[in-house]
Design a protein that fits this description.
elongated, 328 residues, five-stranded antiparallel β-sheet, alpha+beta, 7% strand
């Protein structure tokens, strides 16, 4: 991989650093790490010294001197992402986590797709490949046969700061799901399940579930709120999600990078434009309450199905007996 210079800028816009990318990792100087973590260069130097003395990392593998350029009087020591992460843990800086997420995503894009997202290059038009492919990726998501929520998750994966292993990402998806469900039904996911699950109803009350699945309903399905939406609610959900996806494609077409927080704000705008009420609270039913009730109703449902199957078997036996001729 040839050396590239990327520009890292935090979400607040208060930190901006030129980052060198080479050998499938990123490299920073001590001065840059001092800026990133808001610490003195002497503090960064001390941490790096301890990292090497404690054999946490090998200096030969993680430190490199890059050649003199027109902007440098002498070659500087650069430290790779492993060192940056180690220093970040030692100084207990949130900026370290944000930078790790950013750097990991950039490396992934370089290795897999051969290009990286670079805010500064947006203005010069030299990142056209990224946005052209991003737009195509979003268009493919829009026309795919995936379910609504999976399409939204696929869109969020294009966010600059997306990290599938971050607990905040999981929480983010739950917030988005509840916002959409509230907009179309004035109920949260937990409220929908709790109030609509009913063992006495066909398919335990699920209205958007495969009608051919009677007697074959899986326990996990009865706890999914979307399964209880009626036809009109499903149609409205589809329209709102399509508008959301169209907006995503527009942002890519306009070369606008998106962070996770941007998506939540835009969702609120789209919902309001459609005259839908915004969810501003956590609902009256907890997730655990919904799980407990759905489990109870599911057990009742299974007993009802079992009894119906038994009665059907008895009827078939009776019919077979009636068909038997006397003497046979």
């Amino acid at each position: 991989m040839n050396s590239e210079i990327l520009i890292y800028q935090n979400q607040e816009g208060t930190i901006k650093i030129d980052v060198r990318l080479e050998e499938e990792t990123v490299w920073l100087t001590q001065e840059q790490m001092a800026t990133l973590f808001g610490k003195a260069k002497s503090t960064i130097n001390e941490h790096i010294k301890n990292i090497y003395e404690e054999k946490e990392l090998e200096e030969a593998m993680t430190m490199k001197k890059f050649g003199i350029s027109e902007f440098q009087q002498k070659a500087s020591n650069y430290y790779n992402l492993d060192v940056v992460i180690s220093v970040g843990y030692r100084v207990k800086s949130l900026q370290g986590t944000q930078f790790r997420i950013w750097a990991t995503q950039r490396l992934k894009e370089y290795i897999v797709k051969g290009f990286a997202l670079n805010d500064e290059r947006f203005k010069t038009g030299s990142s056209m490949n990224y946005f052209n492919e991003l737009q195509e990726r979003i268009r493919e998501i829009r026309i795919s046969e995936k379910l609504f929520y999976q399409k939204i998750k696929d869109i969020y994966k294009t966010s600059i700061d997306y990290d599938p292993n971050d607990e905040k990402t999981t929480a983010f998806f739950k917030v988005v799901q509840n916002k959409l469900l509230w907009a179309i039904s004035q109920q949260t996911a937990a409220e929908l399940v709790y109030r609509r699950v009913d063992a006495s109803l066909p398919l335990i009350g699920m209205l958007s579930y495969d009608k051919k699945a009677i007697g074959q309903v899986k326990k996990a399905e009865v706890a999914i709120a979307k399964n209880y939406l009626n036809e009109d609610e499903i149609k409205l959900l589809g329209l709102l999600v399509e508008q959301y996806l169209a907006f995503a494609e527009t942002m890519a077409q306009q070369h606008q990078p998106m962070y996770m927080k941007d998506w939540i704000k835009r969702l609120d705008v789209i919902l309001q434009l459609n005259g839908r009420e915004l969810l501003t609270h956590g609902g009256t039913i907890s997730h655990q309450m919904a799980l407990d009730k759905s489990a109870i109703e599911y057990q009742k449902y299974k007993e009802i199905i079992k009894q119906e199957e038994k009665e059907q078997s008895l009827k078939e036996i009776e019919n077979d007996i009636k068909k038997l001729k006397p003497g046979k």
